[in-house]
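Audit log entry. Action: structure prediction of a protein-small molecule complex. Ligand: magnesium ion. The ligand was supplied as SMILES and no pocket hint was given, so placement is left entirely to the predictor. Protonation state taken as written. Sequence taken verbatim from the request; no trimming, no tag removal. Recorded inputs:
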Amino acid sequence: MAKINWFPGHMAKSLKELKNSISACDYIIETCDARLPLSSRNPKLNKALQDKRYMLLLTKSDLADPIQTAKWIDFFLRQKSDNLISVMAVNSLNQTEINKIRIRALADNQYIIDRAKSRGRRIKPIRIMINGIPNTGKSTLINGLIRKKSAKVSNRPGVTRSLNWLRAGTEFELLDTPGILMPKLETVAEQIKLGISGAIKDDVLPLIEVACGLVVILAQQYPQIFADLYEIKLNKEADYSTWLTSHELLEKIAVRLNIIKSGGVPDLERTARRLLTEFRQGKLGRFTLEFFDQEIVFPASL
Ligand SMILES: Nc1nc2c(ncn2[C@@H]2O[C@H](COP(=O)(O)OP(=O)(O)OP(=O)(O)O)[C@@H](O)[C@H]2O)c(=O)[nH]1
Ligand SMILES: [Mg+2]
């Protein structure tokens, strides 16, 4: 799989602006995708902002495997530090869950309110920067916290293109920021997982390979779903970590869904698109793509 490089101009510009804005913020909420909590973090960005206290928020938890999400929260809680104050998971489409985030963010910053009170100063809203890689639900979270559809949201990555302050009542001022990916993605596995999750623009992705990557993960971690969703029985002897076997499985799915080109050939491009769309919408079920206690074996480069 060729190296993907998707670091458009607005990301480079925003990275600089984020560094400049950080001193005006009291706290950070870093969003990452609950289905791939390591690969969906940007170490470069975190290094630039490292001195601020922050909450790590695993978003889209309604799409992730709940058992694995609980394990990941535990994993990050064990890494708590002076800066990493809270670790939570959220379905940002659910207002009750958003309210829990609001309460935790207030509690984490109560000391600022207490300090202002003790000095007889006016209590100002807590200023929170929301950052994270593209499409991890930053703008959605902000709209939930301010209870208005003010920030633009879309199922495509790279929608927010500039920094934008929004007021949430008297409690918070929230800085919506553009999602910033790493300029270079290191491994095939990382590219595949980010591609599946929707963090990289589909136009720059080899969709068939990404869909094969999804098949590889599902066949290793959730093999039962092939029978449940497509009535395909996996061969227990087969090695589903290769491009060849995953291609074959994708072809079987195409046949099963009757996605066929003229001449009776399975249409892999359309099948890949359909599989990825349904996965991202949660229509296939709740799945995690990355496991802290198990390695997925991915195909080597093509
Ligand atoms: N199922 C589910 N979908 C979510 C959740 N949070 C956000 N979304 C969806 O994810 C997509 C991306 O959300 P945005 O809020 O635009 O993401 P963003 O991080 O602001 O993206 P950029 O501005 O491109 O960096 C939208 O289709 C949202 O509806 C969640 O917790 N669960
Ligand atoms: Mg956004």
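Audit: result stored. The mean pLDDT is 94. The first helix runs from residue 9 to 21.
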